Amino acid sequence: MTTIARPEVAAPEPWVFPEATATALPNGATLLTYDVPGQYVLSIRVGLPISLADEPRDLEGIATVMARTLDEGTEHHSAEEFARLLERKGVSFGAGIGDAGLTMDLDVVKGNLEPALDLLRQILTEPVFPEQEVARQVRTRLAEIEQERAVAAHRAVIEFVRTFYAEDERSARPIGGTRETVSAITREAVVAFHAEHVVASGATVVIAGDLSDLDVPDLVGRALAGWDAGAVERPSAIERAATLAQDRCRIVVVDRPGAVQTEFVIGAPGPDRSVAGGWAPYPVIGFVVGGSPNARIDAVLREDKGYTYGIRSSFRPRRSGGLFLTAGSVRADATVESLRLLVELLTSGREGFSQKEVRSGVDFIAKTAPGRYATADQVADEAVIMALDGRTTQFTTDNLHDLVTVDAARVDAAFARFADGAGIDPERPGSGWTIVLVGDAAEHMAGIQGLGFGSVTVVHDR
Amino acid sequence: MTRNAYPLARTTLENGLRVVVSEDHAVPNIAVNLWVGVGSRHESPGRTGLAHLFEHLMFQGSRNVASGEHFSLLMDQGARLNATTWFDRTNYFETVPTGALELALWLEADRHGHLLDAVTQQNLDNQRDVVKEEKRQRYDNQPYGTALIDVYATAFPEGHPYHHPTIGSMEDLDAATLEDVHAFFRAHYGPNNTVLTLAGDLTPEHGFAMAERYFGDLPPIELHQRPLLPQLPPLHGAVRLDRVKDVPNDRVYVTFRLPVDATPEYHACAIAVDVLGGLASSRLMRRLVRRDETATSVGGWTMGLVDGVGLGALTIDVTPGADAEAAEAALCEELARFIEEGPDAAEMESVVADTERAWLSSLASLDERADHISQYTLLHDDPDYINHFVDHVRAVTPDDVRAAAARWLQPESRAVVRFLAQSDAEAAA
Q1: Which residues form the Peptidase M16 N-terminal domain (chain A) (predicted)?
Q2: What's the CATH class of domain B239-428?
Q3: Do B137 and A309 touch (CB under 8 A)?
Q4: What are the residue ranges in chain B where pLDDT is below 70?
């Protein structure tokens, strides 16, 4: 027999995000180091504020192909040799571009930091983008485009951005480019894009982990001394909010005859981290609406109805502007009812949040912070996210301090600010949202139209 | 020795609960991790998927805990939690702020000791629906999503415990009754079939005392465990299964039966598979992706299991327009060459360095460290394995790798599953 009463919980100990030491490198890059004792695999990150809008319109995807070819052959080593050099030192390397910019990730055991930095030097300063390797990355990306079309969740996102953003916005098109633009990418174009954009000026290098007995600024300074500063002023496209489509508030169904589930992406414009009233309430809203099995959405769609394995909502801040996105899949025959419920639940913030809900969200986010930022990887990732947002991890710490003061009044005000901006009017169900479904159009079309949420368009892939 | 050994202390309570504590005060968090010695390999015919469906019910309330309260009480205290089911075990875990350790243990003890007080037909029906959506989302509605299910059924004989997947079949999920759930709990959930690991901001003395306080009263169960099955030999003669599907490109899974986990021969096979397909500089990468250009990507992985067999796989994403059979034939050539010559020094060095970084990265977080400790305690009775895993890999010689490949990775021992793109298949017809 369990006879012990439910234990009380002691208040958590105070905690702050690990402190950064910043060093300005002569070539215009900034080095941030975070000493995280006991983390013997060091995480190295390089963040470059490169805008996707800087890609030539007819060569979109070139930044992605360039990032993937950075370590595919250097002045002194072939692609094969370089892959082997990385592996013999146990260095994992990856690079990719997103809305926030280009990031490179290297992880290496502490004892191999110096050789890892030398390999990073070669990646940054000596890539030659061999013709054959560029062609191979182009082929790989083309195959990936087909795979993304085949995966319902990816397909939904592609259709979502196409519907949500204005037609001439880079954000309206896939980050990695389309079949047409990727096919046109040449070695010469990749070399030119790299020379112009992958320069030290404005870049941030992060090294996190157990740094005892290491002089990291000296090691990095020497390794990256030959990395050119490049243009002093970077173009500012990355700091501009994307324009939304005039007709973004509508429903698009991507037809998948016979699909056993329907995939949803539902979104509306949201704030960035500089929003009036503070950023802290927004993750709380995301948690309360769609962040756990007990959140408003899953309490109904999963735990009550059994329509889904789980649906998640979150605010996604960009450097300027942002999104509130909800995504997940439901049983095919519950599509229409799920859509009705989702819009109702997503709009329910208009009626306010209870003190209990807000407390739950604040407590979860605040109290998980020490564990969410415990490893070298987690610290380095947060540092580079902040750098590419034009901030430092002081924001992470300040935001956590602000978070514990968030109450229901602030959350209600934050939701109202978001909903007003998005045009979400509870009197007009469906208003303000961009809704994409990937599922059997013929099966669900009449039901979706019957909800009266606005215009419904069907897209056929083949 | 790996340079940074994590401290480990273990004890066994009178009721048989094995408790391991790994002290680490870097962050004011404790990872609570339970492994129960039951997985899909323990399921009976007609009841596949039951272990996993049961795992879902563990979140729906117990004697002193309301449905959904396990999540809400812990999340309100800053816990990150979940559970997973696999062939050999079921795993429940939460990482909590130090002050919430006792709440976590109280909740775990309540459901691990007294679940059945709260299981209802309504909960069972609801979670059955949720699990079916999990199956549709992760398997049925994904391109290639059901390929591994085909791999298990092709590589392992009918009736073998790994022949069927953890997710089970829709028919068997439908057939599960409340009586099944009760019987399953009584047969498998007890302190003497469970490992509790606590990793983080606590001392062993405190951890042991807390385990005793919350779990000490749970009675042991009568365990009826058969001995582990004898090692399955490699297949004699290749077997294959083709599926023509609406997939973007042909994908070929070339798989092999392997020795059981945590044995020198398993490590040797894992190194061989890494050298062949796992490393970024692997032989198949060089041959199929870089030289022949018949693949857009290749892969290599092994799955360590305990009940008489493991699994190894080499995968090929065939370049659109290229010939899947030619790519597979080239793979077999590379296998034969590898069996002939074994790995070279640079390949061995790469595998060891890559394994060391990946392993230490994984141990760097409290939750993964606790998970590995539970694994090696429950399945191999050796928590300290986490501190020696890299040494075991390093101890394997190139000759060991060649010999293991010669025994386990012969082309004629392969089980091949191919997912072929519909349009290609039609064009070829």
Answers
A1: 54-160
A2: alpha beta
A3: yes
A4: 1-3, 424-429
